Amino acid sequence: MVVTFDKVDTRPAHIEAILSGLDRYNPETTTIFQDYVVQQCEDRSFDCYANLALLKLYQFNPHLLQPETVTNVLVKALTVFPSPAFSLCLALLPAYTQPFPKNEAEAQAAQTSDFVESVQKLARLSSLLESAQYTQFWSTLNSDDLYADLVADVAGFEELVRIRIAVEVGKAFREINAEVLEQWLDVRNREALEKFVTEVCTWEVEKSGSSTVIKVPTNKENEARSEVKSERVGVDMFGRVIRRGFEQAA
């Protein structure tokens, strides 16, 4: 049996069998993949390859498309940023759902479809996460009840995104002010923030007077290292030039 390129430890055996064969193009497997998406939403797992296979089936069989399942796949993809999962999923959706319509007909279709509005709102969230506008991400997420409806089926959505943001922050900072981190993680309670950074992130909290600084341990991403580049030029590299210098003109 051929091994799929995107191995997931939590992937059930029957899903693995479908993805490893031609059945992944069989429309009859659509319901199986849809049930698997529900499972991912419940147990906080994520299987990008299986979800892409489902979206590909929708692409080949538009009449089978389930808007709620598609939005759940996109929401799950948000929880694994900055991986390209969201962009890969978005690329398999119908052209009229894309954030930037190519013509007036697509623009009009977008204005009259709740599904398209949902996709474009999720694309907005993805853009904010990818550009590290974390404060704006949370304010946008909390600004519309539609966002709450879109993420409702995904268990622990906010916690999963919060962890991903913390991972990215840990790659860029050695220390950060607690007030700033509260906004980036949307944790408005100082006690809750300190519990999160110490228990989940294993970072340190340093208090000095009225200010609190979060210390991030050194890792290969945030470590400041000097780099010295040198070029070694051997005499033999100039041998031909030197010989020509002693040659007499013909």
UniProtKB/TrEMBL annotation:
Cellular component, GO annotation: eukaryotic 43S preinitiation complex; eukaryotic 48S preinitiation complex; eukaryotic translation initiation factor 3 complex
Q: Where is the PCI domain?
A: 46-232
Keyword Cytoplasm assigned: yes
- List where in the cell it is found: Cytoplasm
Q: Which GO terms describe its biological process?
A: formation of cytoplasmic translation initiation complex; regulation of translational initiation
| Alphabetized GO MF terms | ribosome binding; RNA binding; translation initiation factor activity
| Pfam families, A to Z | CSN8_PSD8_EIF3K
* UniProt keyword annotation of Metal-binding present: no
Q: Which UniProt keywords apply?
A: Cytoplasm, Initiation factor, Protein biosynthesis
Its assembly, as annotated, is: Component of the eukaryotic translation initiation factor 3 (eIF-3) complex.
The record, for PANTHER family, names:
EUKARYOTIC TRANSLATION INITIATION FACTOR 3 SUBUNIT 11 (PTHR13022), EUKARYOTIC TRANSLATION INITIATION FACTOR 3 SUBUNIT K (PTHR13022:SF0)
Q: According to its UniProt entry, what is the function of this protein? A: Component of the eukaryotic translation initiation factor 3 (eIF-3) complex, which is involved in protein synthesis of a specialized repertoire of mRNAs and, together with other initiation factors, stimulates binding of mRNA and methionyl-tRNAi to the 40S ribosome. The eIF-3 complex specifically targets and initiates translation of a subset of mRNAs involved in cell proliferation.
Q: Which family does it belong to?
A: Belongs to the eIF-3 subunit K family.
Q: What is the protein name stated in its UniProt record?
A: Eukaryotic translation initiation factor 3 subunit K
